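Fold it.
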Amino acid sequence: MAVVEIVSFGYLHDEPPAGHLTIDLRHHFRDPHVSPELRYMTANDAPVRAAVLGTPGITDLVEATAAAVAAFASGPSAGTVTIADGCAGGRHRAPTFAAALAERLTAAGHQVNVRHRDLSKDVVQR
């Protein structure tokens, strides 16, 4: 099994981190930021996680990304597989996705490390 690094981030804060695969969650998945009751919460809050994971397509993307990790891990060169996943501010969709992916990959036997680059940053006013 592979060692997997998952980095969640917000495109509005800085350039995406380097990764073997970068997942852009901005355009295809509902943003909790638009809901005033969720805007100042983060992926550490259950209502945010429920909103993100309840969005059609998210769990399918988690599974597809897990399959991509398995493909990278099956290659002839050993090494860490890095997945970067980003949303607008890095507080809602990206860290929720990262945690769901980490859970799925850990269950499959991978060693997973997760870093949320922008989770603790201030809400981006937009």
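Residues 3-116 form one domain.
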